[in-house]
Amino acid sequence: MPAGLLSLPVLLAAALLVLFASLAGVLYGQARGNDRLERRKQWVAAAGRGRARGGKGEKGPTSRRRMMESAVKELEAKQKAHQKRSLRVKLRQAGLNVSETGFYIASAVAGVVAAVASVPLGAPMPAAPLIGVIFGLGAPRFFLKKKAERRQRHFTQNFADAVDVIVRGIRSGLPVGECLKIVGRESPEPVGEIFRQITEGQKLGMTMEDLMERSLQTMPTSELKFFAIVIIIQSQTGGNLADTLENLSRVLRERKKMGDKVQALASEAKSSAMIIGSLPFVVALGLTLITPDYIGVLVANTAGHVMLAGVGLWMGLGIFIMHKMVNFEV
User: Fold this and answer.
1) Which residues touch 244 (CB under 8 Å, ≥6 apart)?
2) Rounded to whole angstroms, how far apart are CA atoms 32 and 24?
3) Which domain does 280 fall in, by range?
4) DSSP code at position 84
5) What separation in angstroms does the CA of 328 have from each of 35, 263, 267, 317, 320?
6) C-beta of residue 115 within 8 angstroms of C-beta of residue 132
7) Residue at 225 is within a domain
8) Could you point out which of 14, 66, 167, 244 has its C-alpha 20 to 30 Å from the C-alpha of 39?
């Protein structure tokens, strides 16, 4: 019998086998999906009955968790709304006692001085306005951002100790307001400043929710947000504040320990990124000192300017990517 006639039944059998296997797989998957759907329906129904029983007389963890979730959402919404406001909030976060007008005037003066001074230093005339914009708009805001981040780091380093002081004060019988006053008087800056603002607001009759919201505008850290949620929930529902704050202090310390561990593990990658990022500039400086004519072609010709602009763009992009790769938020 020819080989083609022999292969035809084999192909038909193989096709039928594949068809039956596929059909069996589909039916098996559908059956398992129906079983999972039925189990999920039963689980949802049981959870609904549990919530119904808890809603009648139980105000335990479920209601408290819901209040915490609503408080978190409220604080985050208000914080985002304040972050979109004018420059005043950013100046407060950086701890600068400067008005918005003063900041704009100082930025404009810095931009004009940089643009005028760049021409005698050898920069081409068309680049002077760009240098003025960089030093007038970019540099002041970059300085403001870095100062605010440094201030937030100092706050985070000392905040757990401040919470421990509050816990010990409450357990010794002092009222919460007096404990906050002690922290504002004894803690280093900027922790002391934040708690002094809270105690001064209490003297003026402001609610604790408004005080926490104002504090988060000045110091928008996750640690202070946790503290604000605990204080707001405790003022609404009551409970053992000392135990809650002790748990919060332990969480803050573990969080800080984890952040330090991440920074230690990433230090080698950061060093490598700094070396790789600075190597082209070091090589260019060395070539300029050894053979100035070789590098001078890039500065004297228009094609060299285009090449320098492209190289600067790619270098900036690479440095930005490496910065994002080796910096982690915990």
Assistant:
1) 230, 234
2) 12
3) 266-330
4) T
5) 42, 8, 11, 18, 14
6) yes
7) no
8) 66
**Could you give the residue ranges of the DSSP H alpha helices within 172-240?**
176-186, 191-203, 208-218, 222-237
In eight-state DSSP terms, residue 123 is: -
Name the pTM for this structure.
0.62
Q: Which amino acid type is present at position 63?
A: S
Q: Alpha carbon 123 to chain centroid distance? A: 38
**How many domains is the chain built from?**
1
**Mean pLDDT, residues 104-127 taken together:** 82
Structure letter (DSSP) for residue 137: I
Instruction: Give the type of residue at 238.
Output: G
Which has the closest alpha carbon to 151: 96, 201, 98, 114?
96
Alpha carbon distance 247, 36 (integer Å): 38
**Considering the domain boundaries, does residue 79 fall inside one?**
no
Determine the distance from the C-alpha atom of residue 294 to the mean position of all C-alpha atoms in its chain, rounded to a whole number. 45
User: Distance between CA 275 and CA 279 in Å, rounded?
Assistant: 6
Q: In 206-301, which ranges are continuous DSSP H helix?
A: 208-218, 222-237, 241-290, 292-300
Residue 274: both structure tokens together: 């700094």
| CB-CB contact of 146 with 153 (8 Å) | no
Q: Is 327 helix (H, G, I), strand (E, B) or coil?
A: coil
Q: Please, which residues have CB within 8 angstroms of residue 55's CB and are 6 or more apart in sequence?
A: none
Question: Which among 151, 144, 54 is positioned nearest to 107, based on CA atoms?
Answer: 144
pLDDT in tens, 192-227: 999 998 888 888 888 888 888 888 888 888 888 888
In a domain, 34, yes or no: no
Would you say residue 293 lies in a domain?
Answer: yes
d(CA 147, CA 94): 5
At 68, the pLDDT band (50, 70, 90 cuts) reads low
What does the block give as tokens for 197?
A: 């603002």
